Predict the 3D structure of the following.
Amino acid sequence: MATETLTLGKALNTGLRRALENDSKVVIMGEDVGKLGGVFRITDGLQKDFGDQRVIDTPLAESGIIGTAVGLAIRGYRPVCEIQFDGFVYPAYDQIVSQVAKMHYRSGGKLRIPMVIRIPFGGGIGAVEHHSESPEAYFAHTAGLKVVTCANPQDAYVMIQQAIASDDPIVFLEPKRRYWEKGQVDLDAPLSDAYPLHSARVVRPGTDATVLAYGPMVRTCLEAATAAAEDGRELEIIDLRTLSPLDLGAVYESVKRTGRAVVVHEAPSNIGLGAELAARITEECFYSLESPVLRVTGFDTPYPAARVEEEYLPDLDRVLDAVDRTFGW
């Protein structure tokens, strides 16, 4: 077994390399993804090894990138588009919602759009305006799109390959603040044996409360669980991994055991993923709940300036405070 310690960013790079090696129809395209290797170096070295016909530096035009990828997908290619920063995706939003998401349905199932839209998302890197966003609710709300996000190097390596192999259009959200965090990655395990792409996972078992998170907040919640354990309280942490479709079987099973649920995400609370999760948990687990489902989120404002960003982002103390409040009912 070839297990290596990789950063999340390097795991994505290695997964992209494997996808390029395994399927000649896979092409990567985006701003500065070739010679530079991407602003976060996620595509570093790929153009050198696979050529500029498969790792393509595009003009600075997100709508053009996505529109071109739609044509490539219709013609049998598997384009992987990089949106350089989350806040840059909005010029392509019309293409994604009007074309990418609807082409399969509009063609009566005759056309497939096997493409991946990679978006570094979230805060935590002290970036300037338009470089820190959490746009997941826009895409999860859109019928015809699938939305996933990784939280650790192993998932990054596997999930990017699974997404590229899928025949559905997938928005692949990468937690940019976690790009440099390291973990063990099994490079030899067959993709067919990997954990399913659209499945949630319990990453820390517990008995007292269920905490749901995804992407960059998974580590924050794991740290909160470690702190809570020092006070004798065991939190069960679930990494949702897939935001559309939501995989709620493990969530329901957990909440019915613990009786308490807290949802954590960086995006604003207003009409966010946390609201949908709270509604579904309440419908399915009403008689098991000991308290309302609580949310720990970013505030209903744009991401703030870098100097006060940490005041905006959910942290360990805010997660623990919400858990404490679930025991006050």
Remarks:
- The chain has twelve helices and 14 strands.
